[in-house]
Amino acid sequence: MRRTRSSAHGGRHELGQNFLQHRPTIDRMVRLVAATDGPILEIGCGDGALTRPLARLGRDLLAIDIDEHRVAGLRRTLPHVRVRRDDVMRVRLDRPVIVSNVPFHLTTPILRRLLSAPRWRDAVLLTQWEVARKRAGVGGRTMLTAQTAPWFTFALHGRVPAQAFRPVPSVDGGILTINRRQTPLIAPADRASYQRFVRAVFTGRGRGMAQILAAATGQSARRSHRALSDVGVRPAALPRDLDPHQWAALWRMTRP
């Protein structure tokens, strides 16, 4: 790999840059983007491994990176693409389609910011494997996924070996898509109330959902058992086992 001067923000390791080199992964991500429509925002474009094939889709494309030297290089090689130096934690996420080989050390803050932004519609992301599988609900849902699932759907599209990146990270990657639901399961105005409920359940005490729900909501054990039965959840289940529709229904049943 060619040497580049350090960015004003630090070297490649300080920037969390693991550059994608794997053609099958690049092709798969571009196909997923091609199935969407509208202007595209690419976050962390790096050397342009994704930018170049995305540009061939013929759609309005804005690519950003915090490394000024790589931005300058892409501007020279892709003069027809708008490439801008910007920070992923500050850029406006207001384009319909978001694409990113997510810097692994910023995965959680980027996902939290993305899932709180109101305007984008479809996201195609390359994240750490464990993050991708957990967000997609493989092996059980996390609190963050449960808190956002009434407004978004998550899907896993394959594992990416660590050797697909340069420098090689210590973990594999995974391709994750996030799509905003056309009809949310809960009104956006109720989002804060719902998310407090999910947090209370995930952090509540008990050996199963019946005990946890009763403790988290202050309801009687009998009423908690009835609510779980009505939405098809076993009393011994755990919060990670519930699907988005069950979470939404429980919230409605147990809210004051």
From TrEMBL:
Binding, S-adenosyl-L-methionine: 18, 20, 44, 65, 87, 101
Residue ranges annotated for the Ribosomal RNA adenine methylase transferase N-terminal domain, each copy included: 25-182
Transcription regulation recorded as keyword: no
Taxonomic placement: Bacteria, Bacillati, Actinomycetota, Actinomycetes, Propionibacteriales
GO CC annotations on file: cytosol
Transmembrane segments: none
Family, per entry: Belongs to the class I-like SAM-binding methyltransferase superfamily. rRNA adenine N(6)-methyltransferase family.
GO molecular function: RNA binding; rRNA (adenine-N6,N6-)-dimethyltransferase activity
Annotated protein name in UniProt: 23S ribosomal RNA methyltransferase Erm
Domain of life: Bacteria
Encoding gene (name): erm
Keyword line: Methyltransferase, RNA-binding, S-adenosyl-L-methionine, Transferase
